[in-house]
Amino acid sequence: MRLLVTGGAGYIGSHTCKALAAHGHLPIAYDNLVYGNPWAVRWGPLEIGDIADRHRLDQVIRQYRPEGVIHFAAYAYVGESVKDPGKYYRNNVAGSLTLLEAMRDHGIPYLVFSSTCATYGVPEQIPIPETHPQRPINPYGQSKLMVEQMLRDFQLAYGIQSVSLRYFNAAGADPDGEIGEAHDPETHLIPLALEVAAGQRSHLTIFGDDYDTPDGTCIRDFIHVADLAQAHVLALEALAAGKPLQPAYNLGNGQGFSVREVIATAEAVTGKQIPVQVGARRPGDPPRLVGDATAISRDLNWRPRYTNLAEILQTAWCWQQKRPYFQRPRC
Ligand code: UDP
Q1: In this structure, CATH architecture of domain 2-171+221-251
Q2: pLDDT tens profile 92-116
Q3: Which CATH number applies to 189-220+253-322?
Q4: Which one of 188, 276, 281 would you pick to mutate in the ligand 1 pocket, going by the greatest count of ligand atoms within 8 A of its CB?
Q5: d(Cα 162, Cα 112) in Å, to the nearest integer?
Q6: What 3-state DSSP class applies to 184?
Q7: Ligand 1 test: best mutation among 282, 313, 331, most atoms within 8 Å of CB?
Q8: How big is the CA angle at 15 (ends 35 and 109), to the nearest 5 degrees?
Q9: pTM here?
């Protein structure tokens, strides 16, 4: 299939383009390159454009006639979304609406949406099932929840078949070492820890160690980016095959690791010390997020290949060490 991948130059988008190509599809990466990296687009064309730019979307859709869309393009910094919510609602919500209207007008029938566990807010139950109430505690999660709702409405009104994949914490890098995580600015725990291990930063700040968790630091469920990518391919193929699906699925490993456990594992994998300082809590961080992904295993036969945190970190460490100079973070 020819598939438009919005945000295809981003971290999860680029890994999904690779997985799509491996399944015989043509990924057309559509990215405004605000946070995306052109070097990460290697398995199909890169079309530079913004999801809010209807004219540009029309051009690209007319040129390639995509049969489906995988929609990653979004701002995804929780902390920034608390400080600058308008940026998140404008890009993530209004931009997605423009994309959906373009799909409707061009008759593109399938969409897989990159959603998030941040739509759940502070969980009442662990692991979190898809049926858990969705009460986001930051504008990032709220913006993704709004798009999930729009997708249900567009499905009913115009027959656009869609599925939302709610990721827990994406981690790791392409096992072949071709692409990996490269945010600028980098704010995520694992790449920051590895940059400290690589001597590119002096220390890591732990955002709060007074949470109600065994070691006081937040607990997260880390899922390998290649496993996430595989799930998108399966979801798109299932939609196109007319398989009945839930509106949304969790994507996680079902296991939680604290920030301190992640740092200790990073020290073990890299053989380096990672100096830490304890700082204030980061606004918008729920204490514990662990997902129940049994539904997607059942419906799409999806199984994560990387269930071991050290193995996930190992792929990220390989990438961290082999990144060419121009891909290195500015510290
Ligand atoms: N975190 C931290 N120090 C950092 C970056 C992150 O303590 O420099 C914590 C953060 O507060 C959260 C966890 O690590 O509890 C995972 O954060 P990340 O930004 O990697 O992913 P998120 O959970 O926001 O998607």
Answers
A1: 3-Layer(aba) Sandwich (3.40)
A2: 999 999 999 999 999 999 999 999 9
A3: 3.90.25.10
A4: 188
A5: 6
A6: coil
A7: 282
A8: 90
A9: 0.96
